[in-house]
Amino acid sequence: MQSDTKATKASWQKIVKPYTEIDNKKSMFQLFNTLIPLVVMWYVTYKSLSYSYFVTVGLALVTSFFFIRVFIIMHDLGHGTFFKTRKVRDIVGTLLGVLTCTPYAQWTKEHATHHNTSGNLDKRGHGDVWTVTAEEFQNMTAWERFSYRVYRNPFITFFIGPIYIFQIRHRFSLSSDGPVERQGIKITNVLIVVAIIGMSALVGFKNFLLIQAPILIFAQSLGCWLFYVQHQYEEVYWGKGAQWSYVDAALEGCSYYKLPKVFQWCTGNIGFHHIHHLSHQIPNYNLQRCYEENELFQNAKVLTFWESLSCAFLKIYDEESGELITFREFSRRYKKSKKAVLAAA
Questions:
Q1: Using an 8 Å Cβ cutoff, are 288 and 256 in contact?
Q2: 218-255 residues labelled b (16+ CB within 10 A) or e (exposed)
Q3: Torsion 175-180-185-186 (CA) sign
Q4: Residue 268 near residue 73, CB atoms below 8 Å
């Protein structure tokens, strides 16, 4: 399915417009049905410390899904889709950013760049998982190949990487940050310290760390996995220069991650990622209805959880075939082509 941006832009904007309406009541309900269970689960997890830490870690995993849902709500606020008033969005977004260890203003700005450059080979590196082309990998030095392999190792991508991003990198400003982003980082950092001190006074610093550390590790790792599989699958779209299309990048460069209903709820419908990338103005509570009522959005790449596991091994984009491939497949294809060149010579 190749879409012509100029030809389809007017039509898809007309299709999504009815779903962009913000309902403050629905938004408030989502806040309550997320934050109240989160507080309850956190307390239950804390009480489990007196029984077994294995039970605590298991409960921390369950609690982490509520943190993921908090992040999705913060994400919607950043897109201007959760409350009608910007001041309310900024205040709530900043507070939720404290829970997720994410400076709201900085992340919102960076994420907007990601939406505008997703699937563009000329503008990689903005909120995405760095991906090289087969030609680029072929021309790398041995050290560069080794470094890329380490970077794309699942342990780094889904464990070390999230810890670094959320606990370290988000504590500092970037060269591209303006006064608003810099101030937001300072406010977030101060409020995180205040929250740690307050919770430590209630339950003790050691207990707080034993509970919050696994919750954040689970939430951030699962969140990175969720983002990863929606942009890293075999038939994913990448374009270059004038050939890149915003519409194609959304409808073909983002998957529909079809999860069981309970996990769809926990992840705030973000599995309808192709629709979200096409129009980030749609609140998460309208995404499923938009999908079900419009055939245009039902042609996206569908990934189930079990199908998505193979995506962890896809590392290199082959421009010739238009596929994301594994390191092994790269070796098979390009060693073969190299031998053919040598034989012809």
A1: no
A2: bbbbbbbbbbbbbbbbeebbbbeeeebbbbbbbbbbbb
A3: positive
A4: yes
Total structural domains within the chain: 1
Closest CA to 127 of 90, 84, 78: 78
Sign of the alpha-carbon torsion through 35, 103, 17, 267:
negative
Q: Which helix (H) or strand (E) holds 133?
A: strand 132-133
List pLDDT tens digits, range 201-233.
999 999 999 999 999 999 999 999 999 999 999
Q: Tell me, what DSSP letter sits at residue 301?
A: P
Owning domain of residue 207: 5-344
Are 184 and 30 in contact, with CB atoms under 8 Å apart?
Answer: no
CA distances for 91 relative to 78, 87, 88, 104, 247, angstroms: 11, 6, 5, 9, 32
Mapping DSSP onto H, E and C, the string for 39-84 reads HHHHHHHHHHHHCCHHHHHHHHHHHHHHHHHHHHHHHHHHCCCCCC
Tokens 């009608």 sit on residue:
84
Nearest 5 degrees, angle CA 264-CA 98-CA 46? Answer: 75
Tens-digit pLDDT profile for residues 158-186: 999 999 999 999 999 988 899 999 999 99
Euclidean distance between CA atoms 161 and 154, whole angstroms = 9
pTM score = 0.91
- Start-to-end CA span in the chain (Å): 39
